[in-house]
Specification:
By secondary structure, the protein is of the alpha+beta class. The chain is about 50% helix and about 20% strand. It has 14 helices and 18 strands.
Length: about 525
């Protein structure tokens, strides 16, 4: 057989890659066109997501102010007609807010007369007839109102108002308002730290500019561009082109709030958008050339490796004739399937090993290591979300006597039954763990000290019910200590210590009971 002039695998692969260059180049053109549109659509979605998030932040701020007003409206000073005390209370409410300079509080009677305004000293002259546009709506509907932008009578500057009714003896007696200055919303926009060149603005329900990230003092109170107003009226959330008052052509998206009926727009100047897309296209073109060059290099390397593999079959083929053990490397797709099956088997084995490492062999509950890991994770989430968490530390009363009297096999049965009762007595989201011996613990996320103690008392009764195994009857009970974050402690170690101390207090007080740890300041 003549092989000297036969083409090699390497040369064939190089020819194959070269044959793909022209189709690949054509495909690159298609991909570049597609990538241009895809990047534009992706940018539109990014803009819309950012606008929605920022609008949500504005709604949360308005809701927070409305909640503070609603709470202030229940002041005991109003039924007593002690307006001086109510004025001082209103100032205290403002002082508790970091941004108090952006807000003032006013109290109006049913005729619209201002009785007090935190922007003026108590008793100072105030307007006899309010121009608050939501006054009539509050008295008709008895519901809170968020107004559009208007000129305040006291401050003589653009302002918007949140108003809530004040009920006395079941009737609306007053109208409590919070006047909010546009500068507050400018701060909210600036906090987002949008990229250089981006413009964001907030509009009221009539399309009036409430706040803006650029040159706000020149634009507050002006109507939005016609294109923006048109899209506000149709609640359109698609990207569209518009021109700002300062002559900048931008691509804009809008997010509309169903709560305040306001809108928030984010615009990217054409120059910025074009620059980003141009950079994307140049990157894609460069990547196409790099791909082609790397494909040729890869074909050269892979061809060499395939040739070496085929040459490697010479030795096994000669060994076959001598009866020696032959090892042939996999060359077909079946072997790939077998590797996949092996990987799945290895995965199952790894999961089994991990489960055994993190769970108690006897009861199947989480062990101490997994318990500590979950508690630390949940404490981090509680700190971030300002929520609570409770730990129940459980120690069985009389278990040693049962173990000594009936043997370890029966003791193991009791422990398994205890584990089942603990799981049945809690929620699916609670983590039950065996810490060792006859000691157990439960993590209850989102549960405070009082509620966790109620659960603990129910578990005491459940665990104290007689245990029946055939003709054998075992009597045990449980002592439970309860500690909560953040009332008792801030770390998992401290929580366990507090719960452990409370458990020993339960044992010292006669067992078969639950004791909650006192708050940290009382320890």
């Amino acid at each position: 057989m003549k092989t000297k002039h036969a083409p090699t695998i390497r040369s064939k692969l190089l020819l194959l890659v070269i044959a793909c260059v022209v189709p690949a180049a054509l495909m690159a053109v298609v991909l570049i066109t597609y990538e241009y549109q895809r990047t534009r659509d992706q940018l539109s979605q990014t803009l819309l997501g950012t606008a929605r998030a920022m609008m949500s932040g504005v709604d949360r701020d308005l809701a927070s102010i409305e909640s503070s007003l609603a709470a202030l409206a229940t002041s005991s000073h109003l039924p007593a007609n002690d307006l001086r005390a109510f004025y001082d209370q209103a100032h205290l409410v403002l002082a508790s807010r970091v941004e108090e300079d952006d807000i003032n509080i006013a109290l109006l009677d049913i005729s619209g007369k201002q009785l007090l305004n935190t922007r003026r000293p108590f008793g100072a002259a105030l307007p006899l007839q309010s121009q608050f546009p939501g006054l009539k709506t509050i008295y008709e509907n008895g519901k809170p109102v968020i107004t559009d932008l208007f000129i305040g009578q006291v401050t003589q500057t653009p302002i918007l108002v949140i108003g809530v009714p004040v009920y006395i003896d079941g009737k609306i007696a007053y109208n409590l308002n919070a006047g909010i200055f546009p500068q507050r919303f400018e701060k909210l926009l600036q906090q987002q730290k949008l990229p250089e060149g981006w413009i964001a603005a907030i509009f009221d329900s009539k399309g009036t500019i409430v706040a803006r990230t650029r040159d706000m003092e020149h634009f507050v109170g002006k109507k939005a561009a016609p294109e923006v107003i048109e899209n506000i009226s149709t609640n359109n959330e698609e990207i569209f082109a518009s021109k700002t008052y300062d002559g900048v052509t931008v691509h804009t998206v809008l997010s509309h709030s169903q709560i305040s009926n306001w809108s928030l727009a984010i615009g990217i100047p054409n120059e910025v958008l074009t620059l980003e897309l141009r950079n994307t296209l140049l990157t894609l073109v460069l990547a196409t050339f790099i791909l082609l060059a790397s494909s040729l290099a890869a074909a050269w390397l892979i061809g060499g490796r395939i040739a070496e593999s085929i040459r490697g079959l010479t030795g096994p083929a000669l060994a076959l004739g001598t009866g020696k053990k032959v090892h042939v490397p996999p060359l077909h797709l079946r072997e790939a399937d077998e590797v996949g099956a092996s990987l799945m088997l290895a995965s199952e084995m790894l999961q089994s090993a991990q489960h055994q490492a993190n769970h108690d062999v006897l009861t199947g509950l989480a062990n101490r290591g997994l318990f500590d890991e979950i508690v630390n994770q949940q404490l981090a989430l509680c700190e971030r979300n300002q929520t609570c968490l409770s730990i129940l530390y459980i120690d069985l009363d009389g278990f040693k006597a049962v173990n000594d009297a009936y043997g370890h096999e029966t003791g193991d049965q009791v422990l398994c039954e205890v584990a089942a009762r603990l799981k049945a007595g809690g929620r699916h989201s609670d983590l039950v763990a065996r810490l060792g011996g006859d000691e157990f613990a439960i993590v209850m996320v989102g549960t405070g000290l009082q509620d966790a103690t109620c659960v603990a008392e129910k578990l005491v009764e459940s665990l104290s019910v007689v245990y029946i195994f055939g003709r054998l009857r075992a009597h045990i009970s449980a002592s439970i200590g309860v500690a909560s974050y953040p009332d008792c402690a801030m770390t998992s170690e401290a929580l366990l210590q507090y719960a452990d101390r409370a458990m020993y207090q339960a044992k010292g007080a006669g067992k078969r009971q639950a004791v909650m740890a006192p708050p940290a300041e009382q320890m």
